Amino acid sequence: MVTIEQKLTLFSKLLNQDIKEEVDKQLVELEKIYKQKRLVNQAKADKEAQALVENAIKRAETKKTELISKAKMCNKKECMMAKEAYIHTFIERLKDKIKDFTQTDEYKVYLDRYLMQFETLRGYENDLDVYITESDYNRHKEYIKEKLSNIGLQGEKLNFKIANDTILGGIIIEDPKRNMRIDTSILQVLEDAKNHIIEVVFGAIGEVGEKVE
């Protein structure tokens, strides 16, 4: 005959077994839940990490583009400054060549043709101020006066004055009464041709640059 103690012992074993099975089952379910959460969290972390990497790459590319753009702009600016310095040097040397030319006999031939353009002032009634360089004043004043008289200007109405040396050569004629000024000095001719000179020189610099590259 089974005693009460034996029944309690058997019941206790069965209860413990049921509890153990239930606990094991719950642990398995809990492990599944945590594993799923870990996978979700890992995917989220991977996604966030990928986003950080992509943003860092984008920022780096943007910075790279900015640096390249700045470098190109600086390069263009430096090239332009170099070209402008070259143009300035070129024109200054050209002025020196012109000054040397005005001391030659060929300059007098130039003046002979140059002064013919003032035929439009033939018979001009007012007194005129004629500005010329100091060198022309000392060497060619009478010749210039004679030439202007020959084309119809009245010699006694020509008032010769020494102009600033920067006019290089040629003459400037002014009528103070009518506030009229005709600037046909070599400096003015050079200024009028400056854009063409720059275009030619820049073109030459460009061709040299292309050959070097």
The side-by-side strand order for the widest beta sheet comes to 2-1-3-4
Described by strand count, sense and barrel closure, the largest sheet is: 4 strands, mixed
How are helices and strands ordered from N to C?
Answer: HHEHHEEEHH
Structural class: alpha+beta
What best-fitting shape do the alpha-carbon axes yield?
rod-shaped
- pLDDT below 50 for ≥5 consecutive residues: which ranges? 207-213
Portion in helices? over 70%
Q: How many β-strands, per DSSP? A: 4
- What proportion of the residues form beta strands (DSSP E)? 5-15%
Q: How large is the radius of gyration?
A: 49 Å
Distance between the termini: 113 Å
Mean pLDDT score: 80
Put simply, the count of helices is 6
Describe the model.
It is built from six helices and four strands; from the N terminus they run ααβααβββαα. It has 213 residues and is of the alpha+beta class. A four-stranded mixed sheet has the order 2-1-3-4.
Compact description:
The chain is of the alpha+beta class. It is 70% helix and 8% strand. The radius of gyration is 49 Å and the shape is rod-shaped.
What distinguishing features does this structure have?
213 residues; alpha+beta; 4-stranded mixed sheet; disordered C terminus
